[in-house]
Amino acid sequence: MIIYNEKSSSFLSHIYEKKIGYVLKENVFTKMNKVVSDSELRSWENSLPQMARVLRDANIKEDTHVLLEYKLPSTEKRIDFLIAGKDAKGNKNAVIIELKQWQKAKVAEGDGIVRTFLGKRERETVHPSYQASSYKKYLQNFNESLYDDSTISLKSYAFLHNYIKDTLAEPLLDNRYKKYLDESPIYFQFNDRDLAKNIKELVSEGNGKEIAEAIENGNIRPSKKLVDTVASLIDGNQEFVLLDEQKVAYEKVMSKYNQIRTQTDQKHVIIIQGGPGTGKSVIGLNLMSSILQTSAYVEYITPNQSFREILRKKLIGASGHVEVRDLFKSSASYVETPNDYLDVLICDEAHRLKVHGHMKKKIEGENQATQIIRASKISVFFVDDLQMISKKDIGNVALIKEEAQKQGAEVHMVELESQYRCSGSGNYISWLDSIFGNEETDEKLEGDFDFKLVSSPHDLVEEIVNKRNGRLLAGYAWKWNVNKKAVDLSKDVIIDEHDFAYPWNDPNRIDWAIHPECSYQIGCIHTVQGLEMDYVGVIIGKDLGYDKKTQSLVVRRDEFKDTGARPAKPKKGQPDPLETLVKNTYKTLMTRGMKGCYVYCCDKGLQEYLERRV
């Protein structure tokens, strides 16, 4: 969607008459039914006159077209400024210009990352040239009018009109950003004439209407180049090979998909149930690759940001195909997506779906399952009702069925049972089920899975982190004191009797599970759900214990510190829903290990009970 598509002469008139803010505000309300914030209005009124000055200096023809606030397909991101026209040789060109009001910046750790003052404090963000380049590549991957073989050539620049370049050592021109600067040159406050010169070379002859309309109305679907890239990353990669039951589930979905491809008037919802380690993500990635090759527009959804980032990195690896990232989306991405906009949506970890996303627009009577089903012709949900770990989690089989029926979708069920995590030990999973279900059985642990109880949290560090390069995990039995201004992380997970104090995982590292600097941090359930590691060490806090009198597990509400996930206290005589959430949390944590799981219990009664059961 493009908020503003006008001739450059009209754009200049709106600037000179000081109407540009009003025009954009009205267009946003008309096209998106949104009210523009004061800060966004000020941003337009501060930046767009600077571009008017550049266009005046470029002396372009009046029928060159200016496009403002182009919303990238199926994202919340918008391109600030895009200009379209022909050059002196008659070539069709479009130029993306990312506008920034920054005044200073610093280099920062990470590829394409800088530090600058945003939202009343200094924070990390992407380099302007990276941002401009990523928007260009996104359009080239998803807008048919701008594919690599298109007749329209796409360029990208960044313009920091308030930023005076440091002539000695400008941080934004540091050599670490060279590849992004080469792709999208950056212009500072006194470089505006250089920017004008480049724009003139590309669009001086005008005739931008046809180009602008092609961009605005271009079919939205992944390019062949992107499809081939995904296929090359999946095919032949042993980590994504489908085994036995996974293959059966995959073929069931593909069979149904192939049957209904021509039945565009009928929605279908496919629910795939499976516990931890049943290979849901492997199936989902193979489905995405295969469906992409049918020229369908498909996206892969994960509600958990950390899981989404690890999936991306696992798929991309060292290949450098970062454009694949754009196929992975948050479950909050479809609030305003039109009906049937996408052919297929694949939602992994669907039990983590919410009513609405953080800081997202709320629509009465809708939740994220509603929006996913509405936005796609076919939606595939991978779900495990027993991994709901917060009062905010609403995704379950019953709810998804209900939402599908409301929208007239046919529902198809597939079940997975085979275990591929925990050394393929179905015995370990059934043993955990009996533990957390308060079932006394004679079943003992068998098989290759390495499970041990340790007597100290320091033993976990030694055995799991130092010896096996694993990760420590814990239940939410300690408060998380986040101070983003602090240099060091707060050591919140404290066990006094062992003189043990470690920090929760760094909230700024969404790749915590694989980042080498994060080994001595403790992952919480919201970070690790969906992930897998070779070895995990789990600290069970005092929110879960064992009552010898009743011979059952007990959940202590006052020891559970995740106030955002904690349901309201039940009425007298009613079961406490927190019991299920806490048990689900620890079962989920204890199934993150591929080869082994070591456990320390803060509650001595629980430690003794588990020792007896082992």
Q: Helical residue percent?
A: 25-40%
- Described by the principal axes of the CA atoms, the overall outline is globular
| Arrangement of strands in the largest sheet | 1-2-3-4-8-9
Count the beta strands: 24
Into which percentage range does the β-strand content fall? 15-25%
Counted up, domains total 3
Mean pLDDT equals: 88
Secondary structural class? alpha/beta
Distance between the termini: 59 Å
Tally of individual helices: 18
Stretches where pLDDT falls below 50 for ≥5 residues? none
Q: Gyration radius, to the nearest Å?
A: 27 Å
Largest sheet: 6 strands, mixed
Descriptive report:
Helix content is 33%, strand content 21%. It is an alpha/beta fold and 614 residues long. The protein has 3 domains: 2-217, no CATH class; 224-415, 3-Layer(aba) Sandwich (Rossmann fold); 422-613, no CATH class. α2 crosses α3, α8 runs antiparallel to α10 (280-292) and α9 packs parallel to α10. The longest helix is centred in the first third of the chain and has 21 residues, at 38-58. The chain is globular and about 85 Å long. The termini are far apart.
Write the layout of secondary structure elements.
Elements: E1 2-7, H1 8-16, H2 20-32, H3 38-58, E2 65-71, E3 78-86, E4 92-100, E5 105-107, E6 113-118, E7 121-126, H4 128-142, E8 152-160, H5 178-183, E9 186-187, H6 192-203, H7 209-217, H8 224-234, H9 245-260, E10 268-273, H10 280-292, E11 298-301, H11 305-316, E12 328-329, E13 342-347, H12 368-375, E14 376-383, H13 397-406, E15 410-415, H14 426-436, E16 450-453, H15 457-466, E17 471-474, E18 493-495, E19 500-502, E20 522-523, H16 525-528, E21 533-540, E22 544-547, E23 552-555, H17 577-589, E24 593-601, H18 604-613
Parallel strand pairs: 4-8, 8-9, 10-14, 10-15, 11-12, 11-13, 13-14, 16-24, 17-20, 17-21, 21-24
Antiparallel strand pairs: 1-2, 2-3, 3-4, 5-6, 6-7, 18-19, 22-23
